[in-house]
Input
Amino acid sequence: MPLSSKERAELRAEAHHLSPLVHIGHQGLTDALLQTLDDTLRTHELVKVALAKSTEVSAKDASHAIADKLRADVVQTIGRTCTLYRHNPELKRKKGDLPPWR
Output
C-alpha cells in the first residue's frame, strides 16, 4: 500500500538526520548492490542512498527502479540522495522502542 502524504512527511522528517547507508557507484544498480539494499531495508526500514557523481542514472530514476525491484516506497529524492522506506512486520518491536532507523 503506498504511503499517504502525511506518512511520507513524517518519514522525511525522520530521514533528515540520517546519513546515507548505501552508496551507488559508477557501476550502477548491480545485483550485489540490490541485495545489500534489500538487507538494509529489512533491518532499518528507512534508508538513505547516495549516488556517486559518476553514476550514469539520475537519482530520481534510480530511486524508482530500486523501489520497484525491492517493493519499497520512495520517501524523497534530493540532489543525488534518495530516501527509501519499506515496512518490515517481522522486526521485533516493543511499545516505546525507538524506530529501527535510529
In short: DSSP finds three helices and four strands in the chain. The chain has one domain: 5-85. The domain at 5-85 is CATH 3.30.110.60 (Translation Initiation Factor IF3). The helical segments are 5-15, 31-44, 59-70.
